[in-house]
Amino acid sequence: MVSAPDPARPVSLTFEVADAINGAIRTVSIKHRARAAAMLAELGLHPGQEAVLLQLDAHGPQNQRQLAAAARCEPPSITVMVRKLEAAGLVERHTSADDARAQVVSLTDHGRHVNRRLRQLWLELAELTVSNLRGVTVDETIRVLSAVAASLQESVVE
User: Fold this and answer.
1) Three-state secondary structure call for residue 5
2) DSSP calls for 54-113
3) Out of 11, 88, 91, 128, which residue is the most buried by the measure of CB atoms under 10 Å away?
4) Which domain holds residue 43?
5) C-alpha distances in angstroms, 13 versus 20, 22, 26, 114, 155?
6) Tens digits of residue pLDDT in 52-85
7) From CA 28, how far away is CA 131, in angstroms rounded?
8) Which residues pair with residue 106 across a beta bridge?
9) 109 lies in a domain?
10) 141 falls within a domain
């Protein structure tokens, strides 16, 4: 009797298959980041800054610790990023009413205006990214990519 594969057991791959998987993911990562960087540059933004702007747009003012968690980066990186966004007039910082040591970041009117265009560019990037998919739905693509991301997140040593 043949038993079903054990989902807890790692998949056994040949080097050739592993090379194809890793090469495809590397290519997607490099090309997606390059295309995103080019599109973001149209708005005067750098990769990573969009995560902060979109987070503020979706959830309103937040402290820098919350932004760092949402953008999946370290607090010192978010501090530099917020400074640059503030210098560009896209966000403003205020001392938190709850904690004088914390800075609350919010979008400016200019930041909200840029976010409208950013959302359009983000939609264009996603459409471009999946434009050659055949026989796979967008929902299936999201499910697979989310599973891949979860696998990588689980393997991170902290």
Assistant:
1) coil
2) HHHHHH--EEHHHHHHHHTS-HHHHHHHHHHHHHTTSEEEEE-SS-TT-EEEEE-HHHHH
3) 91
4) 27-130
5) 11, 12, 18, 45, 18
6) 999 999 999 999 999 999 988 898 999 999 999 9
7) 13
8) 92
9) yes
10) no
